[in-house]
Amino acid sequence: MACLIFFMQCGFAFLEAGSVRSKNTTNILIKNLLDVCIGAVAYWAVGYAFAFGPGNALLGHRYFFFENMPSSLYSHWFFHFVFAATATTIVSGAMAERTEFGAYLIYSCIITGFIYPIVSHWAWSAEGWLGAGPGQEGITYQDFAGSGVVHMVGGMAALVGAAMVGPRHGRFDKDGQAVTIYGHTVPLAALGGFILFFGFFAFNGGSQASISQPGDGEVVAISIVNTIISGGHGALVAMLIKKLGFNGQWSLLITLNGGLTGMVAICAGCNALAPWGAAIVGVVSGVVYVVWSYAVCKLKIDDPLDAVAVHLGGGLWGVFSVPIFRFGEGVVFTWSQDAFVALGWNALGALVIMAWTGVLTTILFGTMRIFGILRVSPEIEAKGLDIAKHGESAYPLSSYGHGWSSEADLIEVKVRGADNNGNLNESPTASSSKGSPASSERDIRKESSISGVLPVQVFQLQPKEQELPVEEVDNKNSDAK
User: Fold this and answer.
1) Residue 458: which residues within 8 A CB-CB, separation 6 or more?
2) % the chain with pLDDT above 70
3) pLDDT digit string, tens, across residues 271-330
4) I need a labelling partner for 434 at 20 to 30 A (CA). Which of 72, 78, 84, 463 fits?
5) φ, ψ for residue 458 (rounded to 5)?
6) Phi-psi group of 467: left, alpha or beta (phi > 0 → left; psi -120 to 50 → alpha; rest → beta)
7) What is the 8-class DSSP label of residue 387?
8) Which residues are CB-neighbours of 180 under 8 A, at least 6 positions away?
């Protein structure tokens, strides 16, 4: 399951690459690659020790560099490493197209190695204070697959980072109105979204962390079922809101983000909600996504991926949804003191996660901003980060060459006329515009016309009963120019 979750990095890479301009594609792809490379090093060195090493209620302090860590925990380390990488990769999308690469390296290490591990220790380790609950029997912090632990951490860091680095040039006009900056390839973004949908089944179902004990199969199954039910409702609601309340169009990207928001929100309670509860979570998620996206834009915060709306908005709603709709125990079932205490404890958990992440990332990004290492120069931003920072254009112009040595090397097509079936035959001879011998013989058959293809232009030659003289082809070439 962890290997499938690891594949979500491919989904994030495609989604982010498709959502930025072509001149910044290499930059965003190397960041997604390094999320797992830096994450592996940082989580091995210190992150896992802070998260799950023996310690106290606040943090672990053993297993640094796997020091004295039993080999039976290796699979546990890998599973939580891919979660840590997911939390970190959320940030790069929100800060895309204007962040210094060195700044990325710094914040990636700190989020993966310290900020995220401390939160996961509070909520998921045996000693963490948040997971232990308020001391009332049966009440604990409910977050099965990380709506708060993973997505709120990544979403809050994305919000602070995007606010600190500032909007891209041209994102808001002189009157403060938002100007849409389109990504360069919708198909790539859509493919990334499909991969993320697929990965969420492992993200949520795999959080059971066992398949061999009685009842494991049922928990995994309901987790996966609830994931697609919530995601499907989130996608449909977001799509309809966009259609009915905005410009009357069926938006692919809005639909995609609405679905992701639904899957983020159900992470917290995918194992504990009935499918009808997951449907309600998904419906509200679609609304949550649209509202958060609108609010972030109104605050003049530029988030190219809508990562804040999807992960912080969806994660926050997910943390609240569990104690409300938990099957048989939630507020809507019992309306009891225990149910409201559980709701309050989850609300406290959400508040603490936001405060911890927000304060530390404000210090982190604020310090880099003070020292002038957070954002690239206006010239580099305008020309793109790919060549300036990496020397590798994602789409080099040289790769689009046509193979002709010069524009003088023309192909002249002489057409004899159509046969009874409407097919056209090329004359067995063809000469260049300079009168040189024919370079090749061709047998081109088409139903209505035939094209003579030049290095930089294409024009149509209409079929005639006689061959076209060379001069007529030259005239057509001049007209095309």
Assistant:
1) 451, 452
2) 83
3) 999 999 999 999 999 999 999 999 999 999 999 999 999 999 999 999 999 999 999 999
4) 463
5) -130, 130
6) beta
7) I
8) none
Q: pLDDT digit string (tens) for 241-281?
A: 999 987 789 999 999 999 999 999 999 999 999 999 999 99
Helices 252-266 and 275-298, axial angle in degrees (round to 10): 120
What b-and-e string marks burial along 66-96, b requiring 16 or more CB atoms within 10 Å of the CB?
Answer: eeebeeeeeeebbbbbbbbbbbbbbbbbbbb
Whole-angstrom distance, CA of residue 115 vs CA of residue 112: 7
> How confident is the prediction for the chain on average, in pLDDT?
88
What is the rounded distance in angstroms from the CA atom of residue 107 to the CA atom of residue 7? 22
Residue that is written with structure tokens 């301009």 in the block:
21
What are 43's two structure tokens? 């989580």
The model's pTM: 0.84
Of the CA atoms within 13 Å of residue 75, those in its CB half-sphere come to 7
| CB atoms closer than 10 angstroms to residue 109 | 19
Beta bridge partners of 426: 415
Going by the DSSP 8-state scheme, the letter that residue 167 receives in this structure is: P
3-state DSSP helix/strand/coil % of the chain, to nearest 5: 60, 5, 35
469, 465, 418: which is closest to 446 by C-alpha?
418
Instruction: Give the amino acid at 219.
Output: V
Tell me how crowded residue 260 is: count the other CB atoms within 10 A of its CB. 29
User: Each residue of 27-44: b (16+ CB within 10 Å) or e?
Assistant: bbbbbbebbbebbbebbb
Q: Minimal CA–CA distance to 386: which of 119, 23, 3, 16? A: 23
If you ran DSSP here, which 8-state letter would residue 450 be given? E
pLDDT tens figures, 16-42? 999 999 999 999 999 999 999 999 999
**CB neighbour class for 235 (10 Å; exposed up to 12, middle 13-18, buried from 19):** buried
Closest residue by Cα to residue 143 from 349, 400, 361: 349
pLDDT in tens, 378-427: 999 999 999 999 999 999 988 877 665 554 454 544 444 444 444 444 44
Query: Given the structure tokens 């997951």, which residue do they identify?
Result: 278
Joined together, the tokens standing for residue 69 give: 């860590």
Rounded to an integer, what distance in angstroms lies between the CA atom of residue 313 and that of residue 17?
22
Q: Tell me, rounded to whole angstroms, the distance of Cα 181 from its chain centroid.
A: 16
Residue 395 is which amino acid?
A: Y
The Cα-based distances of 208 to 52, 97, 150, 215, 311 in angstroms read 17, 37, 16, 10, 21
Chain-centroid distance of CA 467 in Å reads 57
Dihedral over alpha carbons 226, 36, 355, 367 (to 10 degrees): -160
